[in-house]
Specification:
It contains 15 helices and 5 strands. The protein has a 5-stranded parallel beta sheet with strand order 2-3-4-1-5, sandwiched between helices. The relative contact order is 0.09. With about 375 residues, the protein is of the alpha/beta class.
Length: about 375
């Protein structure tokens, strides 16, 4: 299977990257942009594999079969370094470490490839650390940065990168990928792809996790239950509690394992007070785990609010009689009733309220419960 297999509906991008991978001197810095689910990081990893592919035929670069392709895609290739953060931001220390790696010569392949999957999560200080390395890279180093949009990256970085714009693939292409790659029933795959709004990762989770489907159904139906202020407050509290439970279940066991592994590596005593040097390292780990949990909750909130938006998006489609396919086809009757009694302007206003909360949760330190309570009341 070729490394380009997962880039559904991105034929122009695949062609652009395949041609670049075959060049003697490809551009030294690239910026992959596109909405969540468009496959930014998948495209960057596939390009890295194609750059290092051992097949001599330029038209077959990214074969997916040779050792270099397989190790690059699995994340174990010695000449591919990737940074993806589970915390809210990429730290300046992580950026400095990446710059150091950029100075190393390739050990086995033609290029040393550095992938920054969350370039939009770099603070200005961290980005400035990368600037000089991207401006004047070593001869065999190639940078691949990923972000939702060009505007999410400092202009000084953006101007030095070759842009690669991706779009969300068609629902049918995502469904076909789930059937072919994951063996999912075609009807389930089609419903999951539509509900995920073409986000491949979310579609797979919805297709394989009954609990995820039930949680999404509850979120999408939330507007139908908003009849009073008290009901709105309860709905907001349920949404926040669900996000916190998701984060806790995702990281509780992992956090404990990480702490135990750290204590073992430090040779910590089984009981009693830890020495100051060990306490500082344990504290640093716990701080990293807290930041990771915060990002997990923020990501879940954003996904939940995106699902909530899909209800109002469908209602607007029906109110305007645009003929566009619905995301939540199973709720057509309820959506038609809602659209019949709600003006398009009011639907748009509700969508703006949800998007504003999404923005605030990412860019400010607002308490999620307060922000979502205020939003739920505004949706009445």
């Amino acid at each position: 299977m070729s490394v380009w297999e997962d880039l559904q509906g991105q034929a122009p991008v695949v062609g652009q990257l395949r041609r670049a991978a075959a060049q003697e001197r490809p551009t030294h810095a690239w910026l992959f942009t596109g909405p969540p689910g468009s496959g930014r990081s998948n495209a960057a990893r596939a390009f890295a594999a194609a750059l290092l592919c051992e097949v001599p035929d330029p038209d077959l670069r990214g074969c997916g079969v040779c050792h270099s392709c397989r190790t690059a895609m699995s994340g174990s290739h010695a000449d591919v370094s990737s940074v993806t953060t589970e915390k809210v931001t990429i730290s300046i220390e992580e950026a400095r470490e990446l710059v150091k790696k950029a100075q190393d010569k390739p050990s086995t392949g033609r290029w040393r490839v550095l992938i920054v999957e969350d370039a939009d999560r770099m603070q200005e200080r961290s980005t400035n650390v990368l600037l000089k390395a991207i401006e004047e890279p070593p001869p065999r180093t190639i940078w691949l940065l990923c972000a939702p949009s060009p505007g999410d990256v400092l202009v000084t970085i953006r101007s030095r990168c070759r842009p690669v714009g991706l779009r969300l693939p068609p629902v049918q292409d995502v469904a076909e990928l789930l059937v072919r790659r994951d063996g999912i029933d075609p009807e389930v795959a089609a419903d999951a792809a539509r509900s995920a709004q073409s986000h491949v990762g979310v579609a797979k989770r919805l297709a394989t996790d009954e609990g995820a489907r039930q949680r999404r159904e509850k979120i999408v139906r939330l507007p139908l239950s908003l009849r009073s202020v008290s009901g709105a407050m309860k709905a907001a509290a349920d949404l926040v509690a669900l996000a916190e439970a998701e984060a806790a279940s995702s990281f509780e066991a992992r956090d404990a394992e990480e702490k135990a592994a750290l204590l073992a590596s430090l040779g910590a005593p089984e009981s009693g007070t830890l020495p100051p040097s060990m306490r500082s390292q344990v504290k640093r780990l716990e701080e990293d785990q807290l930041r990771r949990a915060k990002r997990s909750k923020n990501d879940y909130f954003d996904r939940a609010l995106t699902d909530l938006l899909s209800f109002y998006r469908d209602a607007l489609v029906l109110a305007l009689d645009s003929g566009t396919d619905l995301v939540n086809e199973s709720l057509r009757a309820e959506l038609e009733a809602f659209a019949g009694r709600t003006a398009p302007e009011a639907i748009l206003s509700r969508m703006e309220e949800i998007n504003e909360v999404r923005r605030r949760l990412v860019t400010t330190n607002v308490a999620p419960l307060l922000a979502i309570e205020a939003m739920a009341v505004s949706l009445l």
